[in-house]
Amino acid sequence: MTHTGEPFIAGESCLLLDHRRRRHLVTLNEGAVFQFDRGVIPHDELIGLPEGATIYSSKESPVIAIRPRLADYVLHMKRGAAVLYPKDAGPIITWGDIAPGNTVLEAGTGSGALTMALSRAVGRTGRVVTVERRDDHAVHARRLIEAFSGMTPDNIEFRSGDVVDVVPDVSPDRIVLDLPEPWLVVDAAAAHLEGGGVFVCYLPTVPQVQQVREALDQSRAFIEIETFEVMMRGWTIDGPSVRPDHRMIGHTGFITVGRKRLPKPAQGSM
Length: 270
Prior knowledge:
Strand order of the largest sheet: 9-8-7-10-11-15-12
Helix content: 25-40%
Shape: elongated
């Protein structure tokens, strides 16, 4: 993977910022062109250009070329399944306590947005096993991940099928679920997570949250269970004019987190 500031190479993603602050995400290919209302820019002129440089279109309109951050890429990439917003990915990683060296079991892969974030979090010494039931979603996610990174990171392993069947084989440190029915995975998580392991799920509706909370409580295998959502509001700052944006990213989903506890010893056994 190239580093910040290095020249662009063919096959990687490039984010173009035009004079109206619009963002255009392109994958650089030799011989291709980028076309917008202010003219045309050949990809060959972008390839080899240092990151952060300004280039002019055929209509002399300035465009700045930078590499997309993961948040930029997730919000502008061509999605297949619904994408998990960057504002939720950060808290999932933080409250899920996902760190370098962890083995994380994720389901479903979806468009791969959370998969990429998890891959970065676990680092080269960690492992992300991502499970997707739908083959078309898995194929699309792999393409999106490769387009962002230039390759599939070595720490990502793709699997097809039901995540419940994968849990015993992987023995993960963390389980992260973006599934309609995560409560079906609770028993497997209770059986195969080590003590202190973390169960995280992301759900859009209250009835789903109620059902997964009931499953976690009934298992008696999890402690410190909590559910929360994250709101994000930008601000407009233009000289002395400072005000909150009229629009904000409000509810997208609920995050539920729980930690695995070991069974209580029988009274009198210690």
